[in-house]
Write a structure and sequence with these properties.
alpha/beta; about 40% helix; about 475 residues; single chain; Rossmann fold; L-fucose Isomerase, Chain A, domain 3; five-stranded parallel beta sheet
Length: about 475
């Protein structure tokens, strides 16, 4: 998997000119091993032009990292290296710096890394240190996690969040101060009225091309669409599905035209009472493909315009490259020991089969009519999340609302078989998607720590990466 992360590597050496030639093979061997391991793992690698053993070389290569727009820079130590050079180069590199020394006891690379760490520490340049052999999976996992965390923080800076609507249903934890986001994360917030989604959706329906193609694709591949009569109390008609598809293309176009990187849609109450729910567009925006089956990079979209949900999800996406779940913490089934994570149609269809193939996921997905909460009607994207290891998390603010904290928990999505899964869902909400989560903490610990109704996550163990991100961003972190 290509990770979309550009990693710079600068190798530091001894400042004595007569040592350059005999040390060159040592430096090149370890640089080559590190570069190849990272490339094999999907990272794009940019190396310095030479071993840094003078201040002018430190400045030159540090500026190269800035010019190449790397997301993370590794300071590589294979031999003893004069500490002044790291301090010089670090001025131009993205922060924090990641310092690495392989196992090489014949040459004091570890000594060099520790001495250089002290030099950076004196002037307040943040850094991480990793020591050990690349062949040790625990060492490499730490290195990779820190690369992902530093890169996610630096890639987040300069992005723009599109806020469609405003506060939904009085949910205060869904609203954040745009100035705080810019100060802490370098993210801008652009407010867009929901009427623009309606206007563009109606124009898209009139043009017909994209909406018609998506409509035909979904009719062919969705397991079942539960159509209703136009005058039914809970409605799902072709007209309403076309409105939902029109909103999907409206958001896609707006993101492309204005450079929006991620977004949130208020939905309730205007859309859900007078036009159509945003469940279909939200699901397919978060998916790795559109409703016509064409692949695209997931565009994080949070329902109820939950800003801190969208931010949490975008961090997950930058760390993992995977679609990210948005859910309510709906219920704890004490008898079977699982949490029921369920929120309207917000779950990307990717979670239905844990696949990047839309046909596989849609074969396990149904479009069911919305319930009494949403009188405008439309399709809810129903499925049960496929089993697998997961990491779940949420950013919240406390006190003066400027102190961020992330709560993280590992766990797994589980299945009890198709018939039993459906039975459990019908006992809670029979038209919304569900993920049955067994967490690595007690229900009491989870309830005590979690001060929000929304939770987010994706497949795999990403707790170490999230914790490292929090350290980079200066956020308190609780791993349950």
């Amino acid at each position: 998997m290509k990770r979309g992360i550009r990693v710079g590597i600068l190798t530091f050496g001894d400042g004595r000119d007569f040592l350059q030639k005999p040390l060159e093979p040592v430096n090149q061997r370890f640089l080559g091993e590190l570069s190849e391991r990272l490339r094999a793992d999907g990272f794009e690698v940019v190396t310095g032009e030479e071993v840094i053993w003078r201040n002018d070389l430190a400045e030159k290569n540090g500026r190269k990292m800035a010019a190449e727009q790397v997301h993370c820079t590794i300071f590589n130590f294979s031999v003893w290296a004069w500490p002044q050079y790291a301090r010089m180069a670090a001025q131009f590199c993205p922060k924090p710096v990641l310092m690495y020394a392989d196992v090489n006891p014949q040459y004091p690379g570890l000594v060099g890394m520790l001495a250089n760490a002290g030099s950076l520490d004196q002037v307040g340049i943040p850094f991480f240190k990793t020591f050990g052999a690349l062949s040790d999976e625990k060492v490499y996992r730490q290195l990779r996690s820190r690369i992902a965390a530093i890169s996610a923080f630096n890639r987040l800076r300069g992005q723009t969040y599109a806020h469609f609507g405003g506060r939904s249903l009085g949910i205060d934890t869904a609203v954040a101060d745009p100035a705080l986001w810019m100060k802490m994360f370098g993210v801008d917030v652009d407010h867009v009225d929901q009427f623009e989604l309606v206007r563009r959706a109606e124009n898209e329906i009139q043009r017909g091309g994209r909406v018609s193609a998506a409509f035909r694709y979904l009719e062919k591949h969705v397991r079942k669409i539960h159509w209703t009569e136009p005058d039914a109390e809970m409605r799902l008609t072709p007209e309403l599905l076309r409105r939902q598809l029109g909103m999907y293309y409206a958001v896609r176009d707006l993101c492309e035209e204005f450079g929006y990187d991620f977004c949130g849609i208020k939905g309730q109450r205007e859309l859900t009472e007078h036009f159509a729910t945003a469940d279909v567009p939200e699901a397919f925006l978060n998916d790795p493909y559109g409703p016509e089956g064409d692949p695209h990079e997931p565009i994080v979209c949070a329902t109820e315009a939950d800003m801190d949900a969208a931010l949490t999800m975008q961090i997950f996406k930058l760390l993992t490259g995977l679609p990210v779940l948005f859910a309510d913490i709906r219920h704890y089934h004490a008898g079977i020991g699982v949490w029921d994570l369920c929120n309207s149609g917000q779950h990307a269809t990717y979670f239905a089969a844990k696949s990047f193939d839309p046909v596989e996921n849609l074969a396990k997905t149904e479009f069911r009519p919305e319930g009494f909460y949403f009188p405008a009607g439309g399709a809810s994207v129903y499925h049960i999340a496929a089993p697998g290891e997961v990491t779940l998390a949420r950013l919240t603010r406390s006190g003066d609302t400027s102190r961020y904290r992330m709560v993280i928990t590992r766990g797994e999505f589980v299945s009890f078989g198709a018939e039993r899964d459906e039975e459990i869902a019908c006992g809670v909400q029979d038209n919304w998607p569900h993920a049955y989560a067994r967490l690595a903490c007690t229900p009491e610990a989870f309830i005590e720590a979690f001060n929000c109704n929304h939770i987010h996550g994706t497949y795999g163990d990403w707790a170490e990466e999230l914790a490292a991100f929090c350290r980079v961003a200066g956020i308190n972190c609780d791993v349950l």
